Amino acid sequence: MIKILSKKKNFKLNDKCFLIKFNSIKSNKRIDAGFNKNPYNLLSKYSIVKLKDCILNKGTYGANEPSIPYNEGDIRYIRISDIDENGNLKNDTIKTAKNIDEKYILNDNDFLFARTGSVGRTFLYKKSMGKSIYAGYLIKYILDTSKIYPEYLSAYCQTSKYWQWVKQQERPAVQSNINAEEYSSLTIPLPPLDKQKEIANIMKEANLLKEKLEKEADKLLSSIDEYLLRELGINLPKKETDLKNRISYTVKLSEIKGKRFDCEYHQSIYNDYQKALIQGKYKLTKIKELMNNIRIILQPSDEKVLYIEIGDIDIENAIINLKVVPLKDLPNNSKIYIEKGDLLISKVRPNRKAIAIYNGEDKAYCTSAFVVLRENGKYKKELLQYLLRTNILNALIVRNVTGSTYPTINDIDILNIEIPTRRLKFNKKL
Description:
Residues 196-230 form a coiled coil. Belongs to the type-I restriction system S methylase family. The protein is an alpha+beta fold and 430 residues long. The chain has 3 domains: 2-39, no CATH class; 48-201, Adenine-n6-DNA-methyltransferase TaqI, Chain A, domain 2, CATH 3.90.220; 282-429, Alpha-Beta Complex (Adenine-n6-DNA-methyltransferase TaqI, Chain A, domain 2). It has helices at residues 22-28, 33-37, 150-156, 160-169, 180-184, 193-231, 243-247, 253-256, 268-278, 381-388, 391-398, 411-415, 424-429, and strands at residues 2-5, 18-21, 47-50, 60-61, 67-69, 76-78, 95-97, 111-114, 122-124, 132-134, 138-141, 187-190, 284-286, 291-294, 304-308, 313-314, 319-320, 324-326, 335-338, 343-346, 355-357, 364-367, 370-375, 418-420. The strands form 9 sheets. A 4-stranded antiparallel beta sheet has the order 4-11-8-9, covered by helices on one side. A hairpin with a 7-residue loop joins β8 and β9 (122-124). The protein is globular.
């Protein structure tokens, strides 16, 4: 809620209200709270300009055409979904358009902004990418390269300052959006061209190094399943390739009695996975016998707290992106008090493998949508984290999911999972 004051008054604010002068509302024409609560202030030793000062057009919208399969030699149809979060063009789903209009053909150094959906994403087109047109949810700007170096603008649009501006500008709706006029008002620090090129080259080298390290990390992570299962003597069963056998199978009535009655739960592959674990080198023990389940529900009292939600787990790297949240902005659901070393396992959409260890020194809280496990000297949390992220154990967890639009599991579904156990020394080695 915004309180618009033309005169200063004695007014007691609550946690949902803030003050703003009427003149500032009048000047920016936006009255939504999200826009006015966190003003975007850009400071730089270089001159600050607006995007419209560095372009040769007012921003044009792309083609409103359906996409069709692409054949070699076709003109490519660039859509929002073809642009990744780093501004790179993806090549896994190349499409062309049903009808090609020459006015949407891209030229070298044309710059695209996503206006809705993945709002804020950007793309710098180069003619070496092949002849292309762009879709209607993208806005094209023709850059004045005598003022702004295209790669510098692309680099700036990957900064946190740019994304702060996007967050402020986007209009709340079913699909947030920013229009061409609003993008034209984007403020940018503008060094001399030589300095712009220097910054762009530094960012390019950093991104190349980042991509190289990510590929190495992906290669290592993809081998963890194989290594762990081999060390534990577990042989993965082969998946059924015959469609008829995959979708039709029989179970005994005694196997269903008192249990779930849906087909998904009783797929034969789950029994095969369980047998593979049993036939491994080491005996199986339920997680609840090896780790402590933490359910300390506390209401924070500090004005700002470290708070972890499901979306704060980086599922690719299995790490937590910590954030400080004002007490007044915390959701109303239960909050679990956690300590350094606690293992957090998401109960929501468990197929995403949102499992991470809290390594912070400060006290923190997490949503009760996590199962929180703590070491008690019987098992290493790091090994358990890796085990639960293997495909075989993840499948056995996902088997217990209920709900379709919001698939979840219960604490007991995790605690009853059986995992291979041996001496703690061996666990540390793994």
